[in-house]
Amino acid sequence: MADVMPFGEVIEAADQLSLTEKERLVEILSRRIIEERRNELAKDVEEANKEFQEGNAQPTTPDDLMKEITS
Fold this sequence. Notes:
Number of helices: 3
Distance between the termini: 45 Å
Helix content: over 70%
Number of strands: 0
Shape: elongated
Oligomer: single chain
């Protein structure tokens, strides 16, 4: 990603696309966003599991968690 295009230029470039191309671009970006969020979630779960295995986290119930948050 060495040649990052400024956001405004990306929008201007998208304005030059046909309606069909814009719709396709939205579909592609939506799928990529979903995939990126999925990867972030998987990474978070992996880190939480590692912390738990290392003894840095303890299992808790939702009720106990809410008590801790609200106290």
